[in-house]
Amino acid sequence: MQLLNNWRIILLLCLTLGLAPFFPEPHIWGKVKWIAGGAEGMQGADWFDVLLHGFPFILLLRLLIVKFIPLKAK
Q: Which residues cross the membrane (predicted)?
């Protein structure tokens, strides 16, 4: 669980796996544009690619929510 709450590791994952390959544009950015354009022609491997490259950003969003939104006391 400590690994999921480590800012350094999650930011490193976002900057490496999340954005790789970097040229001509980050891979996840190309996939997000493809999905926003209607996802015409996307196959299973493309959706897996979105999941793989997007997972670090999901972890980052989760960490932001856990750290900055306090839980309500019961």
A: 48-69
Contact 50, 35 (CB under 8 A): yes
Sign of CA dihedral 39, 40, 46, 47: positive
Is the Cβ–Cβ distance between 49 and 31 less than 8 Å?
yes
Q: How far apart are CA 26 and CA 22, in angstroms?
A: 5
Q: What is the DSSP string of the chain?
A: -TGGG-HHHHHHHHHTTTT-S-SSS-HHHHHHHHHHTT-TT--HHHHHHHHHHHHHHHHHHHHHHHHHSPPPP-
Q: Model confidence at 5, in pLDDT bands (50, 70, 90)? A: confident
